[in-house]
Amino acid sequence: MAMLGKAAIAMWWDIAPAWRAEFEDWHTHEHFPERMGVPGFLRGTRWTSAQGGEGFFVLYELEAYETLVSPGYLQRLNAPTPWSTKLMPQHRNMIRSQCRVVESVGGGLARYALTIRLSPLPGSEEALRAYLKAHAAAAAAQPGLSGAHLIVTDTPAMNATTEQKIRGGKDRAADWIYVVNGYAINAVTACDGDILNSAQMRAMTGGGPAWSDVYCLSHTLERAGAR
């Protein structure tokens, strides 16, 4: 897929098996429609661990960076529904990154998403951006793959919201996030190893901690007229 808009919210969390069915019901029938009703929200996608684990990945695509601090969005964050209030505490190990879209190549939605969280060494930002931009262009044309996207966290200054407090306090955030989409899991998984084992990548990140996982598309909702 090519991402819609200029900003995004990328989130990872775990849901215990006992809560999974109700979580997916709530997220599909209440939470996604609520978010797509906020001006500036264009599309939401929910992904589940391709290995069958407890992890979820959720990506919201936004018209503009300013949507992150818009009155409509803040109103929802600070006035969660009773169902949201019940389910939010079950979001374990939350990572929530508010991002600018730096690069996005490809078209359509694919079945799988590789997500990589990483950080450049000081002074290597432009080199890493160029490397991932070139990688995204090549990946989008490879058999088994369909697109790739680089988003970078730029957390706006704001007070903790009611939703954050319900989840137990300040959320953690990633730094740089690289997402590769594809229709063949073998191609997506191979891309993971190619990136993380690249000598160029290691030189630009110092071989520092990088986290990655592969997810399978579970549900998507797009705002009417978003394209």
UniProtKB/TrEMBL annotation:
It comes from the Bacteria. This is NIPSNAP domain-containing protein.
